Amino acid sequence: MNTKPSALLARLLAPVAALALTAASATAADAPELLAKYNFEDIPAYVPNWGAGLGSTYKPATGWKTPFKVSLDADNPHSGANSLRIEFNESSAKEKIVHGPSIKVEPPAADRPGDRKVTVRLFARATGLAGKGAGIRVLERDEKNASIRLLANEQSLITVPNSPTWIELNAEGTLHSRTRSITFMVVTYQEEVPATIWIDDVSVELEPTGYAN
Length: 213
Fold this sequence. Notes:
By secondary structure, the chain is mainly beta. The protein has one helix at 4-30, and strands at 33-38, 51-54, 57-60, 68-73, 83-88, 96-99, 103-104, 117-127, 134-141, 147-150, 158-160, 163-174, 181-188, 195-206.
């Protein structure tokens, strides 16, 4: 049996296969890294690892009854069985925050020294917001867990508007070189009541950086 044509074909196809493998590796390297995903599914009603604050006072998120209340809501989630509901039921001029757990961020690799950008995506709906309304904030911390700054130096990286239906919100910001963890937050100075915010399908992604030459 003559195997020379098969051997010749294999030699001809080898560079093509190598090129395809290189392209696949480059695509994988260029893909964003998912740092956190919150869809509020399959978790207890007390929403573990989520906290909330009123001014400088903090408790577990569901520990608040006034001036706002945090809970899982099975009525009309964006997807799945639940969304996270934040209901303002009493007037207060103090800053109100609901935040997720700390998200670890690895230091950049030596061969990827470029800016590290974080993209935040979520779905939200809201009723009754007024004045400054509500927004999404990302806090950066260093390796000792000390606060560095807010991502993009913005009090609200994304504004949450009134909307009876789910809308997609997204924004990005460049991390400080010393940042080793970040925290996703919903923040508001809402004083008028009643008002309610729902969030669902939150994702936090680290965008790839360029390689060193």
